[in-house]
Amino acid sequence: MQPTIVTWLLVVFGAITLAPLVLAQSVMLVRPNSQQAKDILVAKGEDWRDETHFRSALGLAWADWILVVPLVASGSIGVVLGQAWGYVLWGASGSISLYINIVLWFMEKEYVYPSRGALAYYTYYWGFFVLWGALALGYSAMRLSGMEL
Asked: Are 91 and 136 in contact, with CB atoms under 8 Å apart?
């Protein structure tokens, strides 16, 4: 199960996609009530819509750091080492990425889309996470079943 060029492309794409999120979630955890957290997660100069919006953002930040970051990091190490457990962890993180971004599509589109614009929204703010999740999940299932690309 040695890594292929596709494996490396997914590792790099995942790192590029997830790094800004990890930074944003770090700000949310360290300084949740700061304007910087609101600028990054809501929109520059904007405030949380309500207490539920704030709590959702804080809960997602904790969930990312407790669950997603370790799964992606250890899964990426595992796939680079050619280990089956790496693909299992990648599949789990891909599933989480798909799930939460489908939920966020319905919860946040009306707010994020106008503040960030179509290109940023359909690429980084939503599309890349869905794409990486689907690719990580599908590629992991394929590799675990013995197929190679």
From this structure: yes
pLDDT tens digit sequence for 7-25 = 999 999 999 999 988 998 9
- Return the SS3 of 149: coil
43 near 115, Cβ under 8 Å? yes
Helices (H) and strands (E) in the chain, counts: 7, 0
Q: Which two tokens stand for residue 110?
A: 């009306």
Residues in CB range of 125: below 8 A, 6 or more apart:
112, 116
Taking residue 118's Cβ as centre, other Cβ atoms within 10 Å add up to 9
**pLDDT tens per residue across span 80-99:** 999 999 999 999 999 999 99
Q: CA-to-CA distance for 18 and 25, rounded, in angstroms?
A: 10
pLDDT for res 75: 97
Calpha distance 130→144 (Å, rounded)? 21
